[in-house]
């Protein structure tokens, strides 16, 4: 008992001898502040950068990773949702577009996304600060669902290097607008991209021609579901002098690089017939040494990647919003509402 009392007394004396720090946030060195900011959640960082202008540059210098970012919008409002570890961690619905796009510009600076999703009808391209600021989205994969087409182009141009997958689910991409997309370096260099619900007949040969002109790397893949018909014939006509082999299901053409070819595959099986609409196509840059015996005959696998409904429902393709829950619903829902939170414009834009 006396031994326990002695130990307790010694610990108490040691505690009383420890220095007591009485330091305000503004007195801390920058490296300590950065450590603190790095442990903050996104909404806490927003609060800090708005409450203390002097530390704003430090907050802006710290990247933050998200599994997914989702942006919905129309002429009335813009909604933002961020996810991490299968949980929605940030929610914002803004009816003041100026504030919403200020926030969007900040997100471009600090967010590092595995997936980005846009379904924005009203044009962000008309918002000057969005198109002129130097912030860039950082994302591995990006998807557009029935966006205003100007938004598709504007956001693609606002992507940092490193995007691997681009999914465009759109039904109004006409030839001259397709040319705008093909001129974007991220599209030219993407490992995978697709257009779902296309009504033009020239997309296949234009993508293939872009790959030829840019000497696209082996493995580059483009897929399209086409409702107009005639894509296959247009492709054959355009590349008549480059065809190495062809049948009703595949066409192989040479490029300007002797090491690689381009293979056009047509999705045909027991479900999808040759006269059916939509028609499904996959373009791939392949090694010139690839044998016909190495072709993939399972078109269902790649068609499901962008149009699973053709083979029936598949729960694995459900949207996150149907299965995710808040860690703290009330806090996520009420944080940063226009009624109780004043987003302060950025001095550096």
TrEMBL record:
Pfam families for this protein: F-box
Name assigned to this protein: F-box domain-containing protein
InterPro entries: F-box_dom, She-1-like
Residue ranges constituting the F-box domain according to the UniProt record: 25-63
């Amino acid at each position: 008992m006396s031994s326990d009392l002695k130990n307790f007394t010694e610990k108490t004396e040691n505690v009383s001898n420890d220095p007591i720090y009485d330091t305000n946030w503004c007195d801390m060195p920058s490296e300590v502040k950065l450590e603190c900011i790095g442990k903050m959640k996104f909404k806490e960082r927003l609060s800090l950068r708005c409450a203390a202008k002097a530390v704003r540059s430090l907050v802006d210098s710290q990247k933050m990773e998200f599994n997914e970012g989702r942006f919905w919008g129309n002429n009335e409002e813009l909604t933002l949702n961020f996810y991490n570890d299968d949980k929605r961690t940030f929610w914002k619905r803004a009816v003041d577009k100026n504030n919403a796009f200020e926030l969007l510009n900040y997100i471009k600076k600090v967010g590092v996304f595995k997936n980005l999703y846009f379904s924005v009808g009203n044009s962000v391209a008309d918002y000057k600060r969005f198109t002129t600021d130097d912030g860039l989205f950082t994302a591995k994969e990006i998807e557009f669902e029935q966006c205003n087409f100007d938004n598709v182009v504007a956001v693609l141009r606002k992507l940092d290097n490193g995007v691997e997958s681009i999914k465009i689910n759109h039904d109004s991409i006409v030839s001259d607008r397709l040319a705008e997309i093909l001129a974007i370096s991220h599209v030219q260099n993407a490992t995978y991209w697709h257009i779902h619900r296309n009504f033009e007949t020239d997309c296949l040969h234009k993508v293939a021609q872009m790959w030829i002109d840019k000497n696209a790397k082996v493995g580059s893949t483009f897929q399209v579901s086409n409702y107009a018909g005639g894509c296959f014939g247009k492709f054959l006509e355009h590349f008549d002098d480059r065809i190495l082999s062809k049948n009703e299901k595949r066409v192989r053409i040479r490029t300007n690089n002797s090491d690689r070819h381009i293979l056009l595959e047509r999705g045909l099986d027991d479900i999808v017939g040759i006269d059916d609409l939509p028609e499904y196509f996959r373009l791939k840059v392949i090694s010139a040494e690839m044998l016909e015996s190495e072709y993939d005959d399972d078109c269902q696998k790649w068609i499901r990647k962008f149009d699973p409904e053709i083979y029936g429902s598949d729960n694995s393709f459900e949207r996150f919003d149907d299965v995710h829950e808040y860690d703290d619903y009330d806090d996520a829902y009420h944080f940063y509402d226009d009624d109780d939170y004043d987003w302060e414009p950025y001095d550096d834009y």
